[in-house]
Amino acid sequence: MAWTWRFEKSDGSAVEPAVQAEEFSTQGDAESWIGEEWKGLLDEGVDQVTLLEDGSTVYGPMSLHADEEAEG
User: Fold this and answer.
1) pLDDT at residue 42 tops 60
2) Cβ proximity of 27 and 53 under 8 Å
3) Cys bridge to 47: 10, 27, 53, 66, which one at CB 3.0-4.6 A?
4) Where does the record place the region Disordered (predicted)?
5) What is the extent of the structural domain holding 49?
């Protein structure tokens, strides 16, 4: 199994950030990576991410703006 992230703008269009994620062997590894990298991705114009397992959506889109929306 390969776990990957799809990076998107808020309208669902694809974004290719400079920071590229590799394929992960576990969901936990993929989630740990996004937990470490989300701020940099947000700075590069990524608004939301979707987790994929072998190309199929596991969950998402998940906003990277969640904290800002919760405060507002």
Assistant:
1) yes
2) yes
3) 10
4) 1-29
5) 3-71
Residue 68: its pLDDT value, please? 55
What 11-20 contacts at long range (C-beta under 8 Å, 24+ apart), as own/partner pairs, is: 12/61, 15/44, 15/45, 15/46, 15/47, 17/41, 17/44, 17/45, 17/46, 18/44, 19/44
Helix (H, G, I), strand (E, B) or coil at 21: coil
pLDDT at 62: 96
- Output the CA torsion 40→43→46→48 (10° steps): 70
**Alpha-carbon distance 69 to 33, whole Å?**
22
Q: Which residues contact 30 (CB under 8 A, 6 or more apart)?
A: 3, 4, 5, 21, 24, 51
pLDDT score for 22: 85
Q: How many CB atoms lie within 10 A of CB 37?
A: 18
